[in-house]
Structure prediction request, 77 residues.
Amino acid sequence: MPSQRLSVVVTRRLPEAVETRMKELFDVELRDPDTKMTREELAAAMQRADVLVPCVTDQIDANLLAQAGEKLKLIAN
Prediction:
């Protein structure tokens, strides 16, 4: 039985080659349009994703982490 693919939310657009490879490996949600997520959008993404790929300008603090769902396993930049 095939394993379920990880759900990945990317908060800003990445180089095309990176996005293409991520789409091959994961169930990826790419930010479109390429604008900064609000705190509310980040909190919602952290509820539905296995992995969050933020950009360096996303401010993820203890309060936001406390809102993360049990599904979230990794925040990777």
About this structure: Residues 41 and 72 are 15 Å apart (CA to CA). The two ends are 31 Å apart (CA to CA). The chain has one domain: 7-75.
